[in-house]
Amino acid sequence: MREWGSGPLKNDAAQDLILALEPLSADGRVLAVRQVFAEHGDLHRRLREAAPVMPLADGDAPIEASLRAIAAGWLVAAALGRVVRPARQAMLAGTPADVLAELANIARDTLAAILADDAEIAARRRHAWSWNDEIRRLHAALAPDAPLLPAGTGEYEDLDDPETLARHNWQYRMKMLLLMAAIIAAVYLFR
User: How many C-beta neighbours within 10 Å does residue 123 have?
Assistant: First the structure.
């Protein structure tokens, strides 16, 4: 069963999308992202025609399609420099501006459909407020007049990277040494 996770790129469907995009060429990635948005629209259109009030469970195909579409929208916004992006997931970097603008428009339409779908809101019941806010922020970041992120905030650290992990381990050890030194000093001074 798929989970909504804690963010647009922190769920199983998003990670599957990223893994599927990694081996593709730049043009292949653009086509794959377009296909994600198209699949979401087609699936939801077919489901609404078949059963307009059908409730969705977390593991259903429409939820999976929505999670992938949200992740794809995030990758488009990251390529536009409008959201914080993971360092290793700059999948659409180097894509021409006109193609990104077109993808952003498609993504905005898809995100608007996700936000308007009552069945999906019910499926996001455990995460509804935080996810709806995330999707709204992403929707706004994809607007043509959305501001760019300030320099230096475009990436967050990837803890899968061995160098970053080693630096964090070193920082943790230094903090623990300082804490131990403070405890020893306090014990020595106040005994």
Answer: 21
Q: Say how many CA atoms lie within 13 Å of 159 toward its Cβ.
A: 2
How far is 182 from 176, CA to CA, in rounded Å? 10
In whole angstroms, what is the distance from residue 113 CA to residue 59 CA? 19
CA angle in degrees (0–180, nearest 5) for 79-66-42 = 105
Burial class, 55, CB count within 10 angstroms (exposed 0-12 / middle 13-18 / buried 19+): exposed
Confidence (pTM): 0.72
The Cα 104–Cα 96 span in angstroms is 12
Phi and psi at 84, nearest 5°, equal -70, 135
pLDDT digits (tens, 9 = 90+) for 80-113: 888 876 555 578 878 899 999 999 999 999 999 8
Question: Could you give the CA distance from residue 87 to residue 93 in angstroms, rounded to a whole number?
Answer: 11
Distance CA 172, CA 102 (A): 44
pLDDT recorded at residue 84: 73
**Distance from C-alpha of 29 to C-alpha of 128, rounded to nearest angstrom:** 30
Indicate the pLDDT class of residue 52, thresholds 50, 70 and 90: low
**CA pair distance 142, 82, nearest whole angstrom:** 7
Given pLDDT bands bounded at 50, 70 and 90, which one contains residue 5? Answer: low
